Amino acid sequence: MKIIDILNSGKLHLSFEVFPPKTDGAFDSVKAATEKIAQIRPSFVSVTYGAGGGTSRYTLDIAKNIKDKYGVPTLAHLTCVSSSRETVKERIEDMKNAGIENVMALRGDIPAELEGDDRSKWDYNYAIQLVRDIKESGAGFCIGGACYPEKHPESHNQKEDIAHLKEKVDAGCDFLTTQMIFDNDLFYSFMYRVREAGITVPIIPGIMPITSKKQVDSALRLSGSFMPKRFKSLVDRFGDDPAAMKQAGIAYATDQIIDLYANGITNVHVYTMNKPDVAEKIQSNLSEILGK
Ligand code: FAD
Predict the structure, then answer these.
(1) From the CB of 151, is ligand 1 less than 6 Å away?
(2) Which of 17, 86, 196, 288 is catalytic?
(3) Least enclosed by CB within 10 Å: which of 10, 97, 207, 213?
(4) DSSP designation for 198
(5) 14 within a domain of the structure (yes/no)
(6) pLDDT tens digit string along 216-263?
(7) Range of 144's domain?
(8) Residue 56 neighbours by CB under 8 Å, 6+ apart
(9) CATH of the domain at 128
(10) 73 pLDDT above the threshold of 60
């Protein structure tokens, strides 16, 4: 099933994100966790793509397994920045042969070892080039793209970032998913600006339930997202009590989702990160609201 057909139903839909194993030895445990997440029956499961690593093939294995075994639609991520066009072509062909219908087209972060490179020699500099190649493959994929309510760290300002986003959408993105946000107001003002810029595709806000003090630092470092005072107080109060921190983090994410839905946003992506217990708790917290 194509994700774009789920997004327009008008009811609250939650999608969950999982990531592939970083080593071959971890495959079975990661697969088991992703299967548990699929059994909660989110609207779709997105499977991230390990940046350039040797285990990137597992994205496809996990996405195909969830789709075939549980009938849950999947979104397979694909990055391009450190790949050749030949490799990307093979990956697109593999996805087509595996029956994948939805692809998240990403540039990927620039690997540290390539920072000083002559970028004009790279096959891919930006995600828009991947979007075009996926479109040109003729496989008819539903294509997702990433967007950044607080602007991408490489952009000089939000206006420039949104102008590039418009070009990416015009190249063929059917929908967008945001970087994690901890303050819904940033998302609402971003929505105003992107609609004003003429971007009309559905935009799914990304919510990350923070369940440990350690996760706070890594999430902020990776995303560069703003941490509101209300959330900081929560970490200060519960950070040293793992069970309480987990409960408070899940409650905070649940509250964000309720606020989004109350303000007319019907699709929310939850960065569940291979944690079935967190996915289950969020879903059960919203049991009366889901589907209404
Ligand atoms: P782009 O859309 O190419 O944008 C990158 C930067 O380039 C932006 O600043 C943009 O404004 C600028 N830009 C775009 N076009 C031009 C142009 N023509 N000229 C000048 N500047 C331009 N990473 C992974 O490795 N694996 C994953 O699975 C993964 N999943 C993600 C899912 C989501 C929802 C998000 C938000 C991010 C994800 N990432 C993932 C991280 C992502 O790869 C990085 O944020 C990366 O740095 C940018 O990727 P992009 O696709 O947004 O790039």
Answers:
(1) no
(2) 17
(3) 10
(4) T
(5) yes
(6) 988 888 888 888 999 999 999 999 999 999 999 999 999 999 999 999
(7) 3-287
(8) 20, 49, 50
(9) 3.20.20.220
(10) yes
